[in-house]
Amino acid sequence: MRNMEVTERLYILFSSSLALRTPMNTSALRAALARAAVTDRNVDPVRSPLGVLGRRQLTQFDLLGQSLSTMAPATCMVFIALWMSTFHGNAGGLLAIIGATVIMVLVAICIRQFTARLAASGSLYSFVAHGLGKRATLTAGVALFVGYLGVSISVLSNAGENLVQVAEVSGARVGPSFSMLACVMVAAGVAMICIRGVRFATRTILVIEVCTLVLITALLLRAPVHVDVTETTTSAPVGFVLFLIMQTVLSLAGFESAAFFGPEARTPLRTVTRTLLISPILVGCLYVFAGWAGMTGHAGTMLNAYFGGIESGASPLLVVAVTVGVCFSWIASTLGFAQAGSRLLFSMSIERIIPAAIERVHPTFRTPYIGVAVFVGASLIGALVHDPDGRGIATYDVVIEMALTLGYTLVSIAALRFLSRIGEHTLWTRLSGVLAAAAGLGLLGFAAADAASSGTWLLVIWLAALSGAGALWYALLSRYRPTSIASIGVFDTVETADLLPGSSELTLDEGGKPVLTPARHR
Fold this sequence. Notes:
Blueprint: H1 2-20, H2 26-37, H3 60-71, H4 73-86, H5 91-115, H6 124-129, H7 134-169, H8 178-196, H9 198-220, H10 240-252, H11 268-296, H12 300-308, H13 316-350, H14 369-385, H15 393-422, H16 427-453, H17 457-480, E1 504-508, E2 514-518
Helix pairs in contact: 3-9, 3-11, 3-13, 4-9, 4-10, 4-11, 4-13, 5-10, 5-11, 5-15, 5-16, 7-8, 7-13, 7-14, 7-15, 7-17, 8-13, 8-14, 9-13, 10-15, 13-14, 15-16, 15-17, 16-17
């Protein structure tokens, strides 16, 4: 444990010095550069376990595109407006959206405590490891994987359904089996883009999301129109306000996906942290705006065009534009979750808590292609049996929301423990951590109690099983692969290539952790 703390502080100190660009004495700098010019590089350099992904690739805009993609804000705005319009304009729903946004911003502040100090490809899973025990870390890993995979299945299935709508609106005649074929096509395209390279993927995502957001926002500013939509609000086994809070949390879920790319960002301690704070605030405001538009009738034009089609009286061009925009947002979300999920699997594979084959990285594109194939393949299998319009879809959403909420709650508690351990707490960080953890626990408790009161005991059992998954996984690792437990929580570290030759040296201690030592000059 002490070695891990020393390594953490070493990385923090090194990264902070790069970010702040602390001025050095000119003569000392000249001497260091002169020494570096005549110093041979270490023949046996120390490398970061995450360096294989490629460093300093992603800019602030790339990370923002990744964060936006997993939230799919354009699509979520459509459904939030639908729920608010069919709930007959109750202000309680709007307050629920605002409250959920505040909760997620508090969670972002908790995650920020880690991203400002560490860069890891496991995101919340890796962060919890530095604040709570190994069992809690494995529980967070299960919750995060289940949540990401569950949302990925849903968005991939909806992307297939929307492609059918696009074909029908365009006048093409397609059979019912085209939806499954469309899912396969989207999955194949997503996998190829993910493997092709992270920069290409994130910039593609950003263009799609920005264009779709502009279209949806413009439509929500139209004059109030009567909403003639036959869609029902929800059949979830929880009350509507609680359902809307959980759906808003689900709609904001994934804002933290930028943290998966810390090792690949140019200045991770700054850019990842900035993205985590900007994205939930920005998208949360868009959701509040969409709720207001649905409540006041301003969303009528958009809702009638998307859900009613040409039969609602909307122009064919408007119907095509809205349908294509929402469809592209679904596809971008599928791409975002595939990128994030593959890096979660990559991190776990490096630690050997899942098969080591998943850590393989493409030699040219430097992407975890096996992880991409596994995650996209699992999403496709789920999407082929997932029915976006099925009777149990609301219950499915609550199952996924519980998993994600559990992950956010654990990272909030971990942030409190982490800052306490390193002695860097402030009144604001304590308040944010306590409120975020209390909100998460309260939301899970209310959801379980509400489900139990409606007789849906399956959700209560699911929450109990999910909470105990980490302890069960830990027991299995202790029996069959005990050495992997000590490696849980891997993060990016300084490499020999990061150091000025002759200034200092990196060596590995007995536990395999890099240790910085003064250079021995002749």
